[in-house]
Amino acid sequence: MTVDRKMEAALALHRFGFGPVRDQIAAIADDPRGALLADLKCPQAGQVAAANLPSSGQASRALYEYRAEQQARQKLAQRAKKEAKPRARP
Asked: What pLDDT, in 10s, does the model give residues 19-62?
């Protein structure tokens, strides 16, 4: 089985990043694994520079609060539904 170096490079860029940018496949085709390992050794590798994104802790807290609010709403809706049912007369 023949190894297609450009295919390997494209696969690596898609799997471990946001996809290739112009001419990146050709640039790393000789050693896609080595190129990716070198990228990972760079300081702040994998960090997205966007000040408006929450930290993982902030995102987790927001998700927790959202789920708690949804559960509270469901409980209130169930309680209201029970109270709205006509009671059987003796």
From this structure: 777 788 888 888 888 887 887 787 776 666 777 888 888 999 99
Mean of the per-residue pLDDT values of the chain: 82
CB 25 within 8 A of CB 1: no
Cα radius of gyration (the chain): 26
* Domain shared by 38 and 1, yes or no: yes
Any domain includes 58 = yes
Number of domains in the chain: 2
Q: Which pTM was predicted?
A: 0.42
CB-CB contact of 12 with 28 (8 Å)? yes
Residue 27's domain comprises 1-42
